Amino acid sequence: MVRGVGRGGRGMPGRGGMGRPPFNRPRVMLLRPPFDLILAEPAFPRCKPAPDDTALTQALLKRHAELCPTPSEQASVLSLVTKLQTVLDNLVVAPGDFAACQLEEVRQVGSYKKGTMMAGKNVADIVVIMKTLPTKEAVEGLSNKVNEEVNKLTRAMGTGSVTCACNERGFTVTAAGAAVRVLVTTLHQNLRKLEPEVHLEYKVISSHLAAIRHSRWFEENAHHSSVKVNTLYQRALSLLAGGLFLPGCAGLPDPCEAAHARAHTALDLAAQDHAAATAQTLLRVVARGGHRYVLGLQAFEGGKDISTEITVWDGVVVSPLAPAYQETPEPMDTDDKDDDLTQDGVAA
User: Fold this and answer.
1) Region 198-216 average pLDDT
2) Which site in 142, 221, 289, 346 is 20 to 30 Å from 88, CA atoms measured?
3) CB within 8 A of 208, min separation 6: which ones?
4) Which has the closest alpha carbon to 255: 216, 203, 202?
5) pTM score of the predicted model
6) Per-residue pLDDT tens for 292-328?
């Protein structure tokens, strides 16, 4: 008797499907992380001292200062956010005769809350959680009430007036030099009660709840003052070049979502390939001392785009990589041809 082929053995399909051939088993896709020199440093000891990255660090700090909003821009946004937060908090605690909706909570989210707001983009985000269902009429009523109350504050302070405009996500409050997007959502138990014709869209409402989770996670985890800015910059560029956003890579999972959504899955295959190829080109430019051109602190001679055109750095030619992904045309429908072949076979 051959081992494993008797009753209940693995070689014979038995009761319960224990003997299924290997090719019938479902395939499990294994996502692998890209090569990371920081994690693999013990396996690749240095043969010479680390290069001096002082120039790169100074360039990064200079570029950071250019990207940060000016003090006047920050003051404009802060002033408008403070007024709006005051009005909304009052509607949560003491709504008075306001009956368009009931508010549960008001939370600041987005780049303003995280401290990552960029110069020229003086827009803050506030999420308003309604106890009641977010109908379009309720959003419009809240917008009118906020417009009325904020303008009362501005007149009392002697500052300029504000305007409110409704949109598919809520409404936007605009003042001189700043704007605040008020993103409307509702309690989680109300999500299944939403109707597309009456309320804001389900995806919009869910994304606003996700924004609160993201801001909370960022506030609790995104503080690493010990990390050097030049090390962080080079590591991020190296990971992108190593395929962080390519198919089959673990990528960057969203820690706030149960489904472990990954950032690069929102990109199509051509965009994923382009991100990796561009990062590889820029990484070679940085390695040859061209970090100022990559950071946008200095324009290349002749207005060349270093990510798409051939450049020379101290005698070293850096050529942009050709696309590795080629979109294949969809196969033609061959149903009619198969039918003809079948008929010929029957006739024969």
Assistant:
1) 94
2) 221
3) 127, 169, 183, 184, 185
4) 216
5) 0.79
6) 999 999 988 888 899 999 999 989 999 998 899 988 7
